Amino acid sequence: MRPKTLWAGIAPVIIGTALAFGDGKMHLLSAIAALVASLLIQIATNFSNDYFDFIHGADTKERLGPKRVTQSGLVKPEIVKIAFILTFLLAFIVGLYLIWRGGWPILTIGILSIILGILYTGGPFPLGYHGLGDIVVLIFFGPVAVGGTYYVQALEITPIVLIAGLSPGLLSMALLTVNNLRDIHTDRTAGKITLAVRFGELFTRMEYLISIAIACLIPVILFFIKGEHPYALATTFVFIPAIPSIYYIFMKQIGPDLNHILANTGKLLLLYSVVFSISWIL
Q1: Whether this model's pTM surpasses 0.90
Q2: CA–CA dist 149, 156 (Å, integer)
Q3: pLDDT score recorded for residue 58
Q4: Structural domain spans, the chain
Q5: Nearest of 148, 129, 207, 122 to residue 173 by alpha carbon
Q6: Are 62 and 186 contacting, i.e. CB atoms less than 8 angstroms apart?
Q7: 129-152 in b/e burial notation, b at 16+ Cβ within 10 A?
Q8: DSSP assignment of 142-179
C-alpha cells in the first residue's frame, strides 16, 4: 500500500474541501466519498505498480527502496494483480455516488484516474517508463483531484480552485522525484527512463527544490489574484521544515536514507494541506 505516500491522495481532498467550505458550498458526504475513492485509487495504483515493476524487471534485489511484496516473493504476482483489480473496482463502486452527484465530469475523472493508474507502469506504453510520470502526478494529484473534490461539492469550478490545486500536485511530484532519484541506477538498468534517468541527478535535485518552492508560493499568487484569505499566506512558511530534506537531497549521496526523505516529504504534504486549509477558512 506504501502508506507513507498516501498523503498524496489525502491532501488534495482536504484542500478541495477547504476551498468549498470557504465558498460556503461544502457537502460533507461528497467530501468523505471523494476521500475514500481517492485513497482506493492510489492504493490500487500502488498495487498495480508493484505488480508491473516486477513483471518489467524494475524491482530487483538491488533496489534501495522499501521491500516490495511481489519482488520479495511475499505475495504471488497473480494475487497482487487480483488485488489491484479489486481495489480499482471498490474505488469505482464508491465513485458511483460521486458520479450520481457530479455527473459526467466526475465520471470522466474517475475513468481516467483508473486507466492512468494501470498505464502508469502497465500496458504497451507505460507512462512512468517514458518520463511522463511526473506530469501525470502533477495533474491528477493536483488540479484534477482538488478540482474534482471541489466540483462534486459545489457543482461548479473556478480558476482559483485549479491554481490552488497545483500545490498538492507539485508536492506529490516532489515525492515522486525522491523515489526516482533513489532508484535512478536500477531504473536505468531496467530501461525505465524516468526524468531522473533521462536528465541526471542534478536535474532531479533541482526538480525537488523547485516543486516545493513553487508550491509554497501558490498562496501568494492566490492572494494577489483574489485579494482575500490573507491568513493563507502563512502556508509559505511550510518551506522552512522542508529545508533539511532539500539539504539532504543536494548534499548527500544516493542511498537507502532517501527513504526517510520520502517519508518526510509525505509529512510535508500533509502539513501543507492542513496549514493551507485551516488558514483559508479562517
Answers
A1: yes
A2: 10
A3: 65
A4: 3-281
A5: 207
A6: yes
A7: bebbbbebbbbbbbbbbbbbbbbb
A8: THHHHHHHHHHHHSS--HHHHHHHHHHHHHHHHHHHHH
